[in-house]
Every structure is written in C-alpha cells, then in structure tokens.
Amino acid sequence: MSEHFRTPEDALAYVQVHDDHAKRLSRASLPTLRGAASNARQAARITLLEGGAVSRDELVAEILALRYPLISEARQEVSARQALLAEQVHAELDAQGQS
Q1: With contact defined as beta carbons under 8 Å apart, do 71 and 16 qualify?
Q2: pTM score
Q3: Is 11 within 8 Å of 2 (Cβ atoms)?
C-alpha cells in the first residue's frame, strides 16, 4: 500500500472522483474551463507569466493534473488490487477444478 492511500478502497474512490470530475469538465464551456483552470492554478499557487493551456483538452488536462496529482499512483494501486483479486479467483477456480 502506498503512503498516500491507506486502503485500496481509498485509491479506488480517488480514481472515481477524478473520472467523474473529468466527465463533468468535458461537458463544460470554454469560459467555464478557463475559470476553473485559473482557480486550480491559484489553489496550487501557480502564476503564469505568459501562455498556458488554450484548447479545451489542454484546459481539462491542466485542471485534472492540478487537482488530482496522485492519479497515476491511485490507478496503479487499483490495477494492482484488481490483478491480485483476479489471481485469487483463478487460484480458487483451479482448486475447484482439481477436487
């Protein structure tokens, strides 16, 4: 288990919240995304001197990266848990087939 997630369920919940937020952002208007990106940068104490995300996809990616910095770790935790569960199921099925 990672230092950021106490249980696999915590990691799964983080992934689900991220994915739900991504769905909502994908339906947002460009002005809404610009405001949300600005708020996310302010919360992360990041100041842009020039440039920055312009397209819808860039804005969504920036917002998600700033608000969910642990998403890669959470997805790895979820994948590891799913692999372990699949391995256990296969072992149980193998044991049942041999009896």
Answers
A1: no
A2: 0.79
A3: yes
